[in-house]
Design a protein that fits this description.
The complex is a heterodimer of chains A (260) and B (263). With 260 residues, chain A is of the alpha/beta class. Chain A is built from nine helices and nine strands. In chain A, the strands form two sheets. In chain A, strands 5-6-7-3-8-9 form a six-stranded mixed sheet, with helices on both faces. The longest helix of chain A is centred in the last third of the chain and has 19 residues. The radius of gyration of chain A is 19 Å and the shape is globular. Chain B is mainly alpha-helical and 263 residues long. Chain B is built from nine helices and no strands. In chain B, helix 2 runs parallel beside helix 6, helix 4 packs parallel to helix 8 and helix 6 packs across helix 8. The chains are: A alpha/beta (260), B mainly alpha (263).
Chain lengths: 260, 263
C-alpha cells in the first residue's frame, strides 16, 4: 500500500496590503508532494503576488509558510537562510526573466556556478540534460532575444530545474503562446510531476492549460481562497464567480470551435 | 512652501535610508559568502567591469585633460606674464591637476560614461524582472550584481585620475613651450620640484571617494527603477545629475577639510 502524500508547503493566514489596498486577506492552502496545484482567479487578484511571497521576494503582513524540508516559517527566517531555502524552489516567470546579456547556456549555468562547487564538466552535463528535457538542445549558444516566447519559457524552466528543486512555481506559463507551444509547456509540467516527482504550483488564466495539468485547483477571489478541489469539483461548483469564470471559458471555447 | 520643502527632506531621508540598506545588505551577502569559503563575486565579472571602467575611459579622460591642461596653462600664463611670473605656470598646472582637476574631471567623465551605463543596465534588468529572478534563485542579487561594479569603479578612479593629471601636465607643457616660451626641460624640472607627495595623496584620496560615490549612486538608481523604459531613462538622467552634483559638493567639502586641517 502506498504511503499517503506528504505536505510539501503549508501556507497559513497570509495577509498583504500594498499601497493601501488589501491584496491577500488570509490565504490558506497546502501543497502535497507530486501534485500540480493550479491557482485561478481574476486578473489583479494577487495570484502572482502569492508566488512572490512563496519565493520570499515579498514579505507578508501576517501569516506563515512552512516548507517540509526545513520545517521553518519562511516569513521569519533570515535573508541568508532564505537564500538557502530558495535553492529548493524553482520559478518560471511570466516573461521568462532570462538574463538578456547571457547565452542560454550561461543562463542555465548561473545557479550552478554561483551556488554549487560543481566543475564546468559536470555543469555541461547538467545543462545538456535539462536542455534535452525541454527540447532545446540546439539553442545553447543563443541569446534570449534570439528565441521565441515559448522557447524563452522553456529555457526558464530548464534554469528552474538545474538545482533539482522540490517545487517549481509557474507564473502564467502559457500566456501569450500559440496552442502548440502551450501544449508543449503543459506536457513539460506533467512530465515533471510524473517522471521527476517535482510538485508544481501554476498560476494561469488559460483554462485549457489549467485543466490539462491540474491535480488540484484553488480559486483566489478578493484576497481569499473561495474554492479548493479537483478539476472535476471545479466544473461542478455552483459558486457564482467560479461559474462565471468557467462559463466565460466555455463560451470562449464555443467561439473557437465555431470559428476554427 | 514649507510642506514642499518638508516633502523634499523626507524624500531625501528615504533615499539615504534605502541606499544605506542596500550597502548593508550587500556587505552582509558578501560576508556570508566569505564565511562559506566561496569567492565573494566572480573575478571574471570584476575584471570585465575594471576593463570597462579603466581601459575604456582612458581615451576620453586623456583627451579632456590634455585640452583642459592646455587651456589652463595658456590662460594662467597670459595673466602671469603681466607680472613677470610666467615661470609659475608648471607649478600651477601640476598642483591644480593633481589635487583638483584630475580627480574632478575623472569623476565627471566616469559619472557620465560609466555611472549612466551602470544605471541603465541595472535599470533594464530590474524592469525586466531579471534582478528578481537572480534573487529568487538564492544567488544574492546585490552581491552578484553591484559588488564587482562598485569595486571596479572605486579602484580604477585613482588610476584614471593619475592619467588625467599626467595628461593635463603634458597639455600644459605643450602650450607653454609653444606660446609661453617655457622649455620642456624647465617645465618638467619645475613640476618635479614643486609637486609634493601630499598633493598626489590628496588627489588619490578624493578619487577613491568620488569612485565610491559614483558607483553607489549609479547602482542604487538602477536598482530603484520603476516603470519600464521610461523609468530607466529617468533613473539614468537622475543618476548622472546626482553623481556629478554629489562629486562636486564632496570635492568642495574635501577642499575645506584639507585646507583647514592639513594646510
Amino acid at each position: 500500500m502506498n504511503a499517503p502524500p506528504q505536505k510539501l508547503i503549508a501556507m497559513r493566514g497570509i495577509k498583504l496590503r500594498l499601497a493601501g489596498k488589501t491584496i491577500l486577506n488570509g490565504v490558506d492552502f497546502s501543497l502535497y508532494e507530486d501534485e500540480v496545484l493550479v491557482i485561478l482567479g481574476l486578473s489583479g487578484g494577487g495570484k502572482s503576488t502569492l508566488l512572490s511571497i512563496l519565493m520570499g521576494l515579498l514579505k507578508p503582513d501576517a501569516g506563515s509558510i512552512f516548507l517540509r524540508e526545513t520545517d521553518e516559517d519562511l516569513t521569519q527566517v533570515s535573508e541568508s537562510r532564505l537564500n538557502f531555502i530558495r535553492m529548493h524552489i524553482g520559478m518560471v516567470y511570466q516573461n521568462a526573466a532570462l538574463i538578456s546579456s547571457m547565452t542560454v547556456r550561461d543562463n542555465i549555468a548561473l545557479p550552478l556556478r554561483e551556488l554549487t562547487t560543481k566543475s564546468e564538466k559536470e555543469i555541461d552535463a547538467i545543462i545538456e540534460q535539462k536542455l534535452e528535457l525541454v527540447g532545446l538542445e540546439d539553442a545553447e549558444q543563443k541569446l534570449p532575444s534570439e528565441l521565441s516566447g515559448g522557447m524563452q519559457k522553456r529555457v526558464g524552466l530548464a534554469r528552474a530545474l538545474v538545482m533539482e528543486p522540490l517545487l517549481v512555481l509557474f507564473d502564467e506559463p502559457t500566456a501569450g503562446l500559440d496552442p502548440i507551444h502551450s501544449e508543449a509547456i503543459d506536457s513539460l509540467i506533467i512530465k515533471l510531476r510524473d517522471r521527476q516527482k517535482v510538485a508544481s504550483i501554476v498560476v494561469t488564466h488559460e483554462m485549457e492549460s489549467a485543466f490539462a495539468v491540474a491535480t488540484r485547483m484553488v480559486f483566489l477571489h478578493e484576497g481569499k481562497i473561495i474554492l479548493e478541489g479537483t478539476p472535476e469539483e471545479f466544473r461542478q461548483s455552483d459558486i457564482p464567480i467560479v461559474r462565471q469564470f468557467l462559463s466565460s471559458y466555455e463560451k470562449h471555447e464555443g467561439v473557437c470551435y465555431a470559428n476554427p | 512652501m514649507i510642506a514642499k520643502f518638508g516633502g523634499y527632506v523626507i524624500h531625501l531621508l528615504e533615499e539615504i535610508s534605502s541606499l544605506t540598506w542596500m550597502l548593508g545588505r550587500t556587505g552582509s551577502e558578501l560576508m556570508e559568502r566569505v564565511s562559506l569559503r566561496r569567492e565573494p563575486f566572480r573575478l571574471a565579472d570584476f575584471f570585465y567591469q575594471a576593463n570597462r571602467v579603466g581601459v575604456g575611459s582612458v581615451p576620453m579622460v586623456t583627451l579632456l585633460s590634455v585640452f583642459v591642461g592646455l587651456t589652463m596653462a595658456l590662460l594662467v600664463g597670459y595673466q602671469l606674464q603681466r607680472f613677470g611670473l610666467v615661470t609659475l605656470v608648471p607649478s600651477v598646472v601640476s598642483i591644480s591637476f593633481s589635487r583638483e582637476m584630475g580627480p574632478l574631471f575623472t569623476g565627471i567623465v566616469l559619472a557620465s560614461r560609466i555611472g549612466a551605463a551602470y544605471t541603465a543596465e541595472l535599470g533594464a534588468m530590474t524592469a525586466g524582472g531579471e534582478v528578481d529572478a537572480i534573487e529568487g534563485m538564492g544567488i544574492g542579487a546585490l552581491r552578484y550584481l553591484i559588488s564587482p561594479r562598485i569595486l571596479a569603479i572605486f579602484l580604477l578612479t585613482p588610476c584614471l585620475s593619475f592619467i588625467s593629471t599626467v595628461a593635463g601636465i603634458l597639455g600644459g607643457a605643450f602650450i607653454s613651450s609653444l606660446m609661453l616660451e617655457i622649455s620642456y626641460d624647465f617645465y618638467f624640472n619645475q613640476v618635479m620640484h614643486d609637486l609634493l607627495v601630499k598633493d598626489m595623496l590628496t588627489g588619490i584620496g578624493k578619487s577613491l571617494l568620488f569612485g565610491a560615490i559614483i558607483g553607489i549612486i549609479a547602482c542604487y538608481k538602477g536598482l530603484s527603477v520603476r516603470g519600464g523604459a521610461v523609468g530607466v531613462g529617468i533613473a539614468t538622467t537622475s543618476s548622472v545629475v546626482t553623481s556629478v552634483s554629489t562629486v562636486i559638493a564632496c570635492d568642495s567639502l574635501c577642499n575645506i577639510f584639507i585646507v583647514t586641517f592639513f594646510p
